[in-house]
Amino acid sequence: MNVHQFIQRCSTRIVKDVDWASQWKSFYKPTRIGQRFVVHPSWEDPGPLNPEDRVILMDPGQAFGTGHHESSRLCIELMEMLDIDGWNVADIGCGSGFLSIAAVRAGADIVWACDIDRIAVETAGKNIRRNDVEDTVNLVPGSALALKPYGPFGLVFANLLADILQDIGSQLKAITSPGGYMIWSGILNEQLPELKSLSDLLEVELQQVHQENEWVALLLRVP
After folding, report:
1. Structural domain boundaries of the chain?
2. What would be the CATH architecture of the domain defined by 61-221?
3. Dist. CA 176–CA 138, nearest whole Å
4. How far apart are CA 38 and CA 30, in angstroms?
5. How confident is the model at residue 118 (pLDDT cuts 50, 70, 90)?
6. How many CA atoms does the CB half-sphere of 138 hold within 13 Å?
7. C-alpha span between 161 and 186 (Å, rounded)
8. Mean pLDDT, residues 21-49
9. Worst-scoring range by mean pLDDT, 12-16, 28-32, 86-90, 191-195?
10. CA–CA dist 71, 195 (Å, integer)
11. Which member of 7, 38, 62, 145 has the lowest number of beta carbons within 10 Å of its beta carbon?
């Protein structure tokens, strides 16, 4: 299609005035994730609950992480394969704080969360307080190395992007305790081979690969 044809096909229409800043809220509904988690925003009731449900109140603001994205759900699925009761957990690139709060609900003794984005740190702090876990989740501005003084960690979440995982994979391993686990997510199907190669290079054991639509996540164990 050339420019002239494109212009000929353009049209306009009048739409009613909408509060776009809050309109997205109508699409954010309570949802079940994994086997036991229920995530809901403050403006929605979580709905009927089972006694074993782990409820998370999540208002993402401008940060990533409502629990609805495949990469977040895959992290929960892999975490539920572990018994993290009493563990020291790290959440790298914590965004809204969703995974940090989920780890507490799953029994983690203490969680250290970090993000290089100031807005994400502020948003995570609000969600941590909303869920009354501020005595368990500690926020630190910065990246993986910022959490090194507080490790090693039995579980390290890294729900990032494949290229970032490639860059900081060795740092993630360095803060994971021997026998501990890492969950890498934010990986597209076609990027899986290079992440498997990275795990081989780092000499960590690939335990599980979970997939949903075009996204995959890895559960890795440090020998």
Report:
1. 61-221
2. 3-Layer(aba) Sandwich (3.40)
3. 17
4. 7
5. very high
6. 14
7. 5
8. 73
9. 12-16
10. 15
11. 7
Crossing angle of helices 70-79 and 98-105, rounded to 10°: 20
Inform me whether the pLDDT recorded for 49 exceeds 90. Answer: no
Distances (CA, A) of 180 to 80, 93, 207: 15, 19, 12
Which tokens is 172 given?
A: 């993630």
Residue predicted with more confidence, 4 or 96:
96
